[in-house]
Amino acid sequence: MSSTSAGLPVLKSLEDFLGGSYDFIVVGGGNSGLTVAARLSEDPSINVAVIEAGGAKIGDPSVLTPAAFPTLLGKEEYDWKCMTVPQAGTNNSVHSWPRGKLLGGSSAINYMMYGRGQTAEYNDWNELTGLKGWAWKDIQPYFWKHEGFTETVPPSELRPSDFSSEKANHGLSGPIKTGFPTFRSTSERAYHEAALNAGLDIVVPRDAWSGDHRGIFANLATIDRSGPGIRSYAVTGYLIPNGHRPNLAVLTDAHVEKVIIKGGDEPVVEGVLFSHSGKSHRLTSKIATILSAGAVMTPQILELSGIGPKSILDKAGIDCIIDNQRVGDLEDHIISGITYDLVDGEFSLDHVNRPEVAAEALKTYMAGQGGPLGNGVSNSGYLSLHDIASREEIEKVYEVVELYRNKLNNDYDRARNDLLLARLKDPKAAIFQIITLAVNIDFAGRHDMQAFLAPSATTTRFSTCIGLHHCFSRGSTHIVSSDPKEQPAIDPEYLKHPVDELLLAYGLRTSDKILNTSPLKEKLKRRVQPAPNVDLNDLDATLDYVRGHTGTEFHPIATASLGLVVDERLNVKGVKGLKVCDASIMPLHISGNTQGPCYAIGEKGADIFKEDAAAFRA
To answer: What residues bind FAD, as annotated (predicted)?
Structure first.
């Protein structure tokens, strides 16, 4: 099943890697980093080095098999296993934060859900930052550039009307393959119908990747359907096809400690200091060093290098070169959810935990027929506040937001607040995400991803997640010492803003209404989470459940934001020769999973950096 061996010429030994001369150093071989490296190295005169802290894991069946993703999360071989500090808003819980520890980064371990967000959300980036070049019209071409959409013919038992798309909104030849599910359980199909029958203003969007995805739809996944169905990620899309380029070099298991800054009136980044096999090494770049280490590691490297809030750097014993108070700002999506037992005879992925079912599923998969192992999340949807709340409840939400606005102490945060409030007021804005999985999810297992996604040992279950994609709460991630291998203090401050828990409570109530609508309700038995005695029409009871059953949706952003930390050309403010290109630059959250935007950011960033290279040589 392996799509390649690990013997790519671009994968270098330490000696060969250090022997090269490089125009650009890319720190991080994840979604955006490998995108940037592949596009820059299209020009044979540009020499590119990629430094990845994790291993290669190329051709690993656990990575390539779509339904195996739960086995990767929380496993040290694949996951950095980051943890938050205790969160007051979630009963002082410590939350697990998976981050990909291998080439491909989190694109190698994620749920493979492919989304883009709403047109207005990207336009808000320009509005908030005062910059140009990052509105929907500026980014949309880069979605087309990275996507290789396959118009899968669904099996006869799947309704074609569920698979709504228009080719004009998709890239057809890009390196990241996308396709609709080829397998859906009967309960997942029933959820789609129940959502349309629940008396809500829910429709099937004409194309959920057009810039308007409000409604319920079958989800596109980054799965290559040319065979049985394998994960399409940054390695298969951007690295392997370019693995023989002589001007591209990749070193794995190499941990960047900091960027090397030459001081003066205009500090200049000369390269990086990294460790490999217990020894430190220097590597220099002629044009620029690009941080693509992700929303946690990119700000960590900035702060280790002396760029960040002076008070944080002083405590860590690091000389402050650039005092930037907004390095390490943090936004995330949060989810809660509901789990039911399925009636006897209904299939769920919990079945695959049984040896005889697992053997049959593997046989189907290896025969090139997909089945449950060749698919990911099949249903998704987005709802506005107006879809789920009464007029009285909506007015209450507005009051809470306005009251809390008075506590904000700077113009930027007030402007952010006002944009988020405008989204709540828009009846077409995508505020909530719905995800369904025919599998057990323990929403109390936020501290341990293996517990969170552990299959039920005794029964089969159906879970639905409700995600809040425009959180008013905003946190931070900062170093705690000068040790580059010590994890930073990740503090997303979940539910700090009181409106977030209120919104999730309304979302859970609506989700349970759909679950109790035909034809889905006939397939469900006992509610497992929340317990049957929890009345989701009782706001206090629902809020109590939210505080004990809410966690990350794995989409951190804004830790090196456009306008605050980098300019519109992704240059780090106050220093030359240093750029950021990953989810860190997103200044305000979009509705949707972030891997699609990260590929688009990488594509757009690469075009910017090519222009920089041309200017450098002019």
So the answer is: 256
